[in-house]
Amino acid sequence: MNLAHGFTLALGGGGARGYAHIGVARALAARGLHPDRIVGTSMGAIIGAGMAAGRTPDEMEAAARGMSVYRLVRRRGRMALFDPRPLLEWMAADLGDPRIEDLPTPLGVTTFDLLTGRPRLITSGRLVDALAMSIAVPLFFPPCRDADGVWCDAGPWEGVPVSLARAWAPAEPVVGVLADIPKLGIFATPVSAGLLRAVSARLGTGTASDRLTARRYLALLAARWADPVVHEPPDVLIAPRLGWLSALQYSRAVEAAAIGERDAGSVLDAQLGQGRANAA
What we know:
10 helices, 41% helix, alpha/beta
């Protein structure tokens, strides 16, 4: 497999841990590797949007250093701890409020429907609207409801969006980046899943047309947390060794990026060396 011939870059979530994606972007650029398309989940969608818009790793790291996430999202959100709208407005202003289909590099933004338990890949429309759905970490940022579903962060159901990346471009190899801590498998065991579904039934999930109340939202979350995690391996996996770095430590962007660059470099050099050996 020769990554120089094209690949899809799949970036998982992870909050502040997702700043490691900036280092991965730097490692790719240093080796002359440029993804044909990018698929991002949550924080991976934010960094992926910057990459797709043509931002360099240095520019993204400088923006991360100069921005206080907690000051931007300090307001309380509906059915959530924080309101992401100021952050999204900042991104819209910074990137020129583009539509996804107008970005220089094709971008797919993932989200997950709490009603049906199905993921979705958004490849057109206003970028910040798609990001609002993708970063809707349950209870931290509010869910986004439209006529098609109740949308939230897809990360708890697929840590790296490999399945959606392959569905979008089946012929291309996928380079996946796992920065997040995956959902524990215990939630989907028969006993745990049964308890979660019982709680959901007791609270009442309602119908698609029902108003989204806090009670109904918790019922939907309980039902969906019983769903198993999708573990589809990418062709190349980069898993930065971020240790105990918390998803909430946004002040450590430079450190996370450095770890991402170091560990991505090791994987990519091994992959490129193997490709040269196979060609010989």
